[in-house]
Amino acid sequence: MARRILVVEDDPSAQRLISYTLEREGYQVIIASNGMEGLKKARGEEPELLVLDVMLPGLDGFELCHRLRGDPQTAALPILMLSAKAQETDISTGMRVGADDYLTKPADPSEIVRRVAKLLSKKDAADNGNSH
Questions:
Q1: Nearest-5° angle of CA 53, CA 2, CA 130?
Q2: 82-86, 108-112, 116-120, 127-131 — which is least confidently predicted?
Q3: pLDDT of 44-101, one tens digit each?
Q4: Does this model's pTM top 0.85?
Q5: Band of the pLDDT at 131, cuts 50, 70, 90?
Q6: What is the average per-residue pLDDT within 25-41?
Q7: Neighbouring C-beta atoms of residue 71, cutoff 10 Å
Q8: Residues 103 and 18 sit within 8 Å (Cβ to Cβ)
Q9: How far is Cα 93 from Cα 60, in angstroms, rounded to an integer?
Q10: Cα–Cα distance measured from residue 111 to residue 51, given in angstroms and rounded to the nearest whole number
């Protein structure tokens, strides 16, 4: 069964690029166009990983990440922030609110795939470690 990845991104062209890139690698992609929809789908669709834009309408990516980390149901969900906000302060804020990784836009599709695979393998290792 394909691994489910939730992409929270409000830019339609970025949505298409990320979805196409991940689907080509065999992932099942779920799309949310804003922070509140992302929060709802993270809880309801049970994705295995989140690709999260920072600049979103309503609830921004930093706040969404913070809320997901505070919810026991989604606290362990790997989160890759993908944002045009490339300042060191933005990256450190992303990591502080709970992102597992931070990639700046425009990101090379192969780099997105590499980071997603790395986070999923870390998640698998953690899950296997907890099952003993």
A1: 80
A2: 127-131
A3: 999 999 999 999 998 999 999 999 999 999 999 999 999 988 899 999 999 999 999 9
A4: yes
A5: low
A6: 97
A7: 12
A8: no
A9: 12
A10: 13
Pairwise CA distance, residues 37 & 40, whole Å:
5
Distances (CA, A) of 36 to 9, 13, 43, 47, 101: 12, 20, 11, 16, 21
Residue 66: its H or E element: helix 61-70
Helix (H, G, I), strand (E, B) or coil at 4: strand
Residues 40, 90: Cα–Cα separation, whole Å: 24
> What is the gyration radius of the CA atoms in the chain, in angstroms?
14
CA distance 93 to 87: 10
